[in-house]
Amino acid sequence: MDSDSVKRSVMQQVLQEANMANARVLIEKLQEHCFEKCVPKPGSSLSSGETTCMTSCMEKYMSAWNQVNHAYINRIKQESMKGNNSL
């Protein structure tokens, strides 16, 4: 394995680990915001109202999460291009 292959492999592994960490944070935030909002008194199962609330809340939260991530990635790309242009 040459050094470029090793570098690509390490970068891929780091990216996968970052994606997993990002997914864990998203799940924690969904639980924090949606479950606590939609299920005030947990029981053995969710009512239809709780299920509807959870679905709606999760869709909204994930949409907002994706918009923020997209904006963040675009900002990083812009900053990276500025840095490359100044060389």
Structure description:
The chain has 87 residues and is mainly alpha-helical. The protein has a single domain (3-85), classed as Orthogonal Bundle (Helix Hairpins). It contains two helices and no strands. Keywords: Chaperone, Disulfide bond, Membrane, Metal-binding, Mitochondrion, Mitochondrion inner membrane, Protein transport, Translocation, Transport, Zinc.
Question: What key attributes describe this structure?
Answer:
Helix Hairpins; single chain; mainly alpha; 87 residues; elongated
Layout of helices and strands, plus pairs?
Layout: H1 3-38, H2 48-85
Helix pairs in contact: 1-2
Protein name: Mitochondrial import inner membrane translocase subunit
Membrane topology: Peripheral membrane protein
Family: Belongs to the small Tim family.
Largest sheet: none
Give unreliable regions as ranges.
none
> Total helix count?
2
**Which secondary-structure class do the elements indicate?**
mainly alpha
Which band does the percent of strand residues land in? under 5%
In CATH terms, the superfamily is Mitochondrial import inner membrane translocase subunit tim13 like domains
How confident overall, as mean pLDDT? 88
CATH structural fold name: Helix Hairpins
Helix coverage percent of residues?
over 70%
How would you describe the shape?
elongated
What sequence of helices (H) and strands (E) makes up the elements? HH
Protein name: Mitochondrial import inner membrane translocase subunit
Membrane topology: Peripheral membrane protein
Keywords: Chaperone, Disulfide bond, Membrane, Metal-binding, Mitochondrion, Mitochondrion inner membrane, Protein transport, Translocation, Transport, Zinc
Subcellular location: Mitochondrion inner membrane
